[in-house]
Design a protein that fits this description.
By secondary structure, the protein is mostly helical. It folds into two domains: about 40 residues; about 35 residues. It contains three helices and no strands. The termini are far apart.
């Protein structure tokens, strides 16, 4: 079973190839179907999301002070933005 090209751009003049759905074998379809069924049965997406969220929460907890400083710095810059835009004749537009 040859892998499909990374980018499958259909062209009218090209003969059926690895990007053409009609050339997929029953075995390939069976494997792909089994793969999706397994991912759904094991809740792979949900588990992946939960694990990633735990890593992110741990990183946030470990760097609370640094993140608070970044938030303060960004807020100060955001407060200055309308004045800077008026100074340079780029008045902010209402949202």
């Amino acid at each position: 079973m040859a892998p499909a090209p990374a980018a499958c751009a259909p062209r009218a003049e090209s003969p059926p190839g690895p990007c053409d759905a009609t050339v997929r074998s029953r075995a390939e379809v069976a494997v792909a179907t089994a793969d999706i069924v397994c991912k759904l049965r094991t809740n792979l997406l949900g588990v992946n999301f939960a694990v990633e969220a735990e890593y992110e929460n741990a990183a946030i907890a470990a760097h609370l002070q640094e993140l608070a400083e970044v938030r303060t710095h960004k807020a100060a810059g955001t407060e200055r933005l309308p004045d800077l835009m008026r100074r340079y004749d780029r008045a902010p537009r209402p949202l």
